[in-house]
Amino acid sequence: MYKQRTLRSSDPEIYRLIQSETKRQDNGLEMIPSENHSSIAVREALGSVFTDKYSEGYPHKRYYGGNEFVDEVETLTIERAKKLFGVEHVNVQPYSGSPANQAVYFALLEAGDAVMGQNLTAGGHLTHGWKVNFSGRTYRSVQYNVKPDGYIDFAEVRKLALEHRPKLIWCGATAYPRELDFGEFGKIADEVGAYLAADISHIAGLVAGGVHKSPVPYVHIVTTTTHKTLRGSRGAMIMVTKKGLEKDLELPSKIDKAVFPGLQGGPHDHQTAAIAVALGEALRPEFSKYAHQIVKNSRALASSLTENGMKLVTGGSDNHLLLIDLTQFGKGKGLFGQLALDTAGITTNKNTIPFDPSSPFYPSGIRLGTPALTTRGMKEKEMAQVGKMIARALKVACIHEMPDDKEGREAAIAKAKEAIGSNPELKKIRKDVLALCKKFPLHKNKRP
Ligand SMILES: *Cc1c(COP(=O)(O)O)cnc(C)c1O
Fold it and tell me: At CA 433, angle to CA 428 and CA 439, rounded to 5?
């Protein structure tokens, strides 16, 4: 056996970077709504010896020996997911959310078949048929949008479904601040005989915690990542519902075959073990409290932002996520907003808003959310403070103009970066952020 050394002594460079990232997370507000802080238990499982194992196949049907404990881990993970979401069949092997969705296509569609999903610019995900993604390039993609008020346009969804007869319809989004009406999607899918898949990657924790309506009674398939509101390690699951089985008894085997051997080789068993731990955590009553607090915090943040002069897409939030519409200050201001918030120690991302007058590269909105701050133990009182800080930072950011031409834009961005980097108001906010973070340390205290 080679000599074992700790990371610190074996690879000080990477050790130092992990320490730096830990400190960055501890000293800043992580408000990207697809992110969270996983538990030490989850990360202990993720760093376990299961990373060494090969286990192509499924429990008790493997192509390699030595899988007695892997089988137990995978079976336990599946059982926990079934219990948590109330589904009939679960595949826990997809490497991440995008490969999980790819497996659904591979299981159900032939190249050229019609698929329908929410437009990326209206808050949908790349894998729901966006033009540059495999899904938009391999299949005939039909995209639905939101109305000017920011809500899904069900009249359009139905009209497009009747016109194009998609074989598969996706619902679920990455940038949608309101509760999804899965029942409405279910009716439309049934009317045209389509498979309906709900991608609950963003809201899985809210569904598990009982604060967002579950799609399970209305859809055939549910896909989800495990690392967003569900607060596990990076990974994904594909679930088949009772309604799915009633439509197609073969659905579980079609999904399983699409994942392996259709698209993947050996599953990441360390990831599976970590997902099991996260699902175990999500089954506890504290998790439901956590999920409810995420939404309370999101609503409190929405109020605070609005009171401080910010405009929100749909005017508020039902879930964990908010979209700030910066067009009152001009178009294409998202990047400046993101840069200013970064300088203040608040991590968010620039995002398109519905009917964005600018482009996806230089969008006019900011997407942010409350899952990670809620994990730290922050509540409505802190959200009121955070909303004020964000509004202050965005007002600093939005004095910069984003020109339409490429050269003008490059010069403007360079100038804005410099000004934002040395802005005294942002430095003041940075101090306030730091003080708030110190009150809610990530790694020293017990977690909520
Ligand atoms: C995050 C997300 C995905 C993709 O997950 P990755 O793990 O980043 O591949 C898919 N669908 C939706 C709705 C998501 O929010």
Answer: 135
Residues of the chain with pLDDT under 50: 445-448
Angle at Cα 186 formed by Cα 184 and Cα 191, nearest 5°?
Answer: 100
Whether residue 251 sits in one domain with residue 392: no
Whether residue 363 contacts residue 350, with contact meaning beta carbons closer than 8 Å, is answered with yes
Q: Is residue 31 part of a domain?
A: no
Phi, psi of 144, rounded to the nearest 5 degrees: -100, 165
The SS3 call for residue 174 is: coil
Report the residue among 120, 125, 227 best suited for mutation to probe ligand 1: largest number of ligand atoms under 8 A from its CB. 125
pLDDT of 361 reads 86
> The tokens of 161 are what?
């479904």
| CB atoms closer than 10 angstroms to residue 66 | 10
**201 in contact with ligand 1, CB cutoff 6 A:** yes
Structural tokens at position 402: 């984003």
CATH number, domain at 265?
A: 3.40.640.10
pLDDT on residue 444: 66
Residue owning tokens 């400046």: 336
Neighbouring-strand partners of residue 142? 116
Indicate if 247 belongs to the active site.
Answer: no
Q: Which of 222, 224, 216 is nearest to 242 (CA)?
A: 216
Alpha-helical (H) ranges within 327-398 are 334-343, 371-375, 380-397
Contact predicate 344/429, CB 8 Å: yes
Q: Are 233 and 38 in contact (CB under 8 A)?
A: yes
The domain that contains 344 carries what CATH number? Answer: 3.90.1150.10
Cα–Cα distance, 30 to 371 (Å, whole number): 9
Same domain as 290, residue 262: no
pLDDT at 360: 81
Q: 228, 243, 333, 367: which one is catalytic?
A: 228
- Residue 376 Cα, ligand 1 centroid: separation in angstroms? 23
- Active-site residue, 228 included: yes
Q: Where would I find the H helices in 88-133? A: 97-108
| Two structure tokens written together for 234 | 């990076």
Contact 389, 29 (CB under 8 A): no
Of 35, 74, 199, 325, which is the active-site residue? 199
Distance CA 276, CA 5 (A): 28
Cα(275)–Cα(278) distance, integer angstroms: 5
pLDDT digits (tens, 9 = 90+) for 333-376: 999 999 999 999 999 999 999 999 998 889 999 999 999 999 99
Distance 222 CA to ligand 1 centre (A): 13
Annotated active-site residue 199? The verdict is yes
Match 């730290």 to its residue by tokens. Answer: 376
Give the domain extent around 298: 286-439
